[in-house]
Amino acid sequence: MNSYRIPEIAKQYTEYDMIQIHTDLPDFPELRSRLLFAFLNGNTKHSESSELYTLATSLVQLALDTHEMVNASNEIKEKKAARSRQLKVLAGDYFSSRFYYLLSQAGQIDMIKQLSGAICEVNRLKMNLYTKMKQLKMTAEDYIHQTVEIKSQLFLSFSEFMADVYDQAWPDVLRSYTKCEVIFEEIFRTESATGFHGSWGFWHILQHATKEERKQLHAEETDQAKVRTLIHKYNVSSQLYQMLETHIKQLQLKVQQLDSDKLISELFHIGEPILRFSAKQPKVLEEI
């Protein structure tokens, strides 16, 4: 069985001095990347291509996430910020080009088509999400569901590859892990003044807040002290922790139903960082 080394291989594309000095990149999609590699590597039909497929998909995801960080406005005047914005655009384009190059060099034209279709679906889902946000028609539950679908979409394109070995386990396990990942990230967004707007906590409060409280959330210059008060009032953090605990337990049951002991062991290690985080909370979670 090949060992997982995708982040190390990806460094030849991501660790350029110009990028590291002048801008920052999103986190590498470690959890979803490891999941894809584990499932492909356990499938004898596709194990030889598991590293190539996972690397290409991870670079596409990194490209999409990098472009997501680009400020919508191109009117940035400050030189340092403008350069950072430009490099994010170029870096995202570069990561996308590597995906095409790697797969075309390997003669994997069908895989290029498959991932390209998934990219289109990601962009469609994002447009739907942004439209609902702009129209204030988003609920907290919708936000989690749509975010999970957006983050999963590239990796879901491999579902037909997994069907002959893992039946329907791949899409279900992928979405479950991704949901835990999203909730995990939302917990930290709640603790960040800059990241709270548009988060799960934001939409949750908006659903239950009074008219005056909604005005506070929509104010051009948000009073952070008042926002913190609302977060506390509506138990945002505690509800997210509870959601994480619930979904981890559901994921445990799904993983335990898999036939492969090796895969179950690998999935435990993949989810270990989230489990360790959860274990530090008042209610210690059982391990997979």
TrEMBL record:
Quote the InterPro entries the UniProt record gives.
HEPPP_synth_su1
Q: Which domain of life is it from?
A: Bacteria
Q: Which GO terms describe its biological process?
A: menaquinone biosynthetic process
Q: What is this protein called?
A: Heptaprenyl diphosphate synthase component 1
Give the source species.
Paenibacillus sedimenti
